[in-house]
Amino acid sequence: MKEVHSGSCLCGAVRFSAKGALRGVVYCHCSQCRKQSGHYYAATNVADADIDIRGFDHVTWFAASDLARRGFCRTCGSLLFWKHNQLDEISVMAGAFEQPSGLKGECHIFVAGKGDYYSIDDGLPQFERSSPKIATDG
Asked: N or C: which end of the chain has fewer CB within 10 A?
């Protein structure tokens, strides 16, 4: 039986359950993630077939680029998802999972666009744009 990881938005209008192992947390420092969140994104990935989203009618999607859209709770504004238009997986914000999540940091991407008010000094791999493992571009 696959392990299940549950989470929600701040107000609870959107809840999700992800089945199976989760990818390590990828920290994205691109300007879109910084502007939407006020800092940088911390997200894991789940196959579309392995996530159940309840309260989906409370999710508002914003097409930030031609490649992807960003999902957030329209009630409380919680950032929840990042979805590439061509892939059968969805990124889920790490902070939306219930504790303990078991998640661990994997790498930093788009560090060329990071904010000038913080440093990255956790020893994880850093990529100027995306990592070779992650086929996305913002």
From this structure: N
